[in-house]
Amino acid sequence: MKQFFKIFIIFLVITSCDEKKSNIIVSSTSELTDALSKAVKGDNIVLKNGTYKDVNIKFVGEGTEDAPITLSAETAGEVFIEGESSLELSGNYLQVSGLFFRNGHSPKKNVIAFRTSPKDVANHSSVTNCVILDFNNLERDKDNLWVQFYGKHNELSNCYLAGKTNGGPTVRVDLKGNQSIRNYHKIVNNHFGPRPRKGGARGETIQLGSSFTSMSPSNTTIANNLFEECNGEVEIISSKTNFNIIKNNVFYKSEGSVVTRHGNYVSVDGNYFIGDGENENYGGIRIINTGHWVTNNLFYKIKGKNFRSPIAIMNGIPKSPLNRYNQVTDVVVAYNTFVDSDSPFQFGVGTNIAQAAVLPKSEIRSARPLRTEVVNNIIYNSEGDANPIIEHDKADGVTFKSNVIDNNGVAIENDKGLLVKDLTVTDIGSNLVVPVNGFSDVEPYNGFDFDVITEDLLGKSRKNNNQIGAILSDENINLNLLDKTKYGADWFSNEVEAKEATTHTVASASELIEKLNAAESGDIIDLKAGNYQLTNSLVVDKTITIQSSEEVTLIYNGAANSAAFLLQPYGKLLVKNIKLKGANTQHAFATLKQNMSNHFGLEVVDSEISNFNYALKVYKQAFSEEITFTNTTISNCENGLELSEETNDRGDYNTEYLTVDNCTFNNVKQNVIDYYRGGYDESTIGGNLLVQNSTFTNCGASEKNRILLNTRGIINVSIKDNVFQNNKVKLIALLWGAKNNSHSNNTISNSGIIKTEENLKQTLMY
């Protein structure tokens, strides 16, 4: 008996020691490495507040469910990971919290990876309450990931991630190897802040798997996240594996869609898609492949078109390879509500039968949806929509039942049995109004397995009082979906208090340089009348306005091929009422030749640009969301606006929107406007060129291809209300008729023609 009690006491002591958490304080990279190498279950390694630069953290350990190994900040948000840094985890029950990745980039293919080698992965591990902000590679073409999942049962939670500008998804789940299949990862309660437009493909916020693991089960859950202005590309979430759950997320003013790109049996349930009623890029859900259930979602003022329409059901490719488009079959779209959203149901999206002459047979999307049920949905339009249902190809494999519309009295051309009702809307908070009654007499369609739809959008039971639409009743609803404190790191806010701009008045070139260097982002530099002689570039690395209300000429005599205005990362420049004159060998505006790790911006208004080699030179891997020239004259330049160095055939281009409005081009010898996108993938749908109310005279004399305005590969082009006279070219423009290229009301004399080819041959990206 005594021996028994001795053993029992020893057991209690050992158990007590196991459960006691050991805090290990470290304050340097070497101390951190040493602590990690010795960590045992229950240890809590605490990084003291401060900055850790060029640190590659390799966190390997074996914790347990009851006694994980943790790596945490002394104070969440006060431990800064900067420079060339990364974090890798492998083992079991590891936890990381409170770190802030900023002012740098990863030297690896990922910033955070749940593995340390192809065979050594993490399981039951988490990264929580962390921030990754603008942690971009120096070159836009150098793709990487910010968080890469491997292993099983791992979690990214309560984090804030924003500002990714280089290629590659922000977060990706990888399924290579049995150790990462059926992973049951969780991506929950995060705030995915603004991801700027990338200018091409490879800009997803979350990607689940890849084409070549698309037949594997992932079982990943993406839930309760806020996606705010996630505009990287047309796909916000790209699901490429099976059995994923996308639930209770808020997609707010995000230019893209949730896309079941590859893989099958995805549940997209109870999400909010919120637009502004104007932007035609805010999207919903795009459906490809088999067995998906799209239920209980609310679409509010979503105006996306075609690929970005509220519900886009695509045509597939017969016998499609894994990386293309499989036919939609056995899909359910039920109990969704649409408020002031254009053409909510679009079928046969992506059909390209008309392009059969220029595409391989293996690329023709002719397989229409089969055995698909679109039922129990509600559409409310405060202004009528004549086309709530669009058939790009016949929807003869789709069942429509028990769908209701209030179309404000506007007749519907293709109603597919929509039931017309007079509905009223109810305020449910978050500036949302929705119809929740007025259709109780409509019997919900009861399809196979519909008993699994047990709740509505708000979690109320459908068992005893079911009705169509996403919301069962308006009782006690007061949502606060955009309360950002509910998502992301509890110590970080992306709300920035508006700063009143300071105006700096200058009267000399030296003052201009001094004030530009000292100004804060958002400030205004106002130039007094006179000539300003400049021999070095004016560096623009912040948001700045340079303007005058008087007669001002900037005369640039810098080195050949240098720029009067050198546009660097974060540099957004507005020039207003300035004359800019060169010495024929320099550039008026140009980006860095390399290391454009973040976007720039340029707007030129009421100005004159003359005697430069290039009016604008944008180098490879530089990107601006918008470039605008308004009421501006460009004359006696060798080259005009040149944005044509993205020749990698990966679908990249240098600006999302290039606008030329009410401008004059005179004696610009070549590259008058040269805006190029190399590589074609139909699911990426930029850039955008608008040329209107402008005059082109004596331009293009040295243009080798004899085309005045070069727009090769650009998807949206509008050339209208311009005057072209005495331009020594064969073509003013060669437009792509199958895409959104158009011209109208142009006056042309001695300048060639505008030619449209319906199907331009393009280099496919895949």
TrEMBL record:
UniProt entry keywords in alphabetical sequence: Lyase
Molecular function as annotated in GO: lyase activity
PROSITE patterns: PROKAR_LIPOPROTEIN (PS51257)
Domain of life from the UniProt record: Bacteria
Cited Gene3D superfamilies: Single-stranded right-handed beta-helix, Pectin lyase-like
Pfam families the record matches: Chondroitinas_B
Protein name listed in UniProt: Alginate lyase
Native organism: Polaribacter dokdonensis DSW-5
Species classification: Bacteria, Pseudomonadati, Bacteroidota, Flavobacteriia, Flavobacteriales
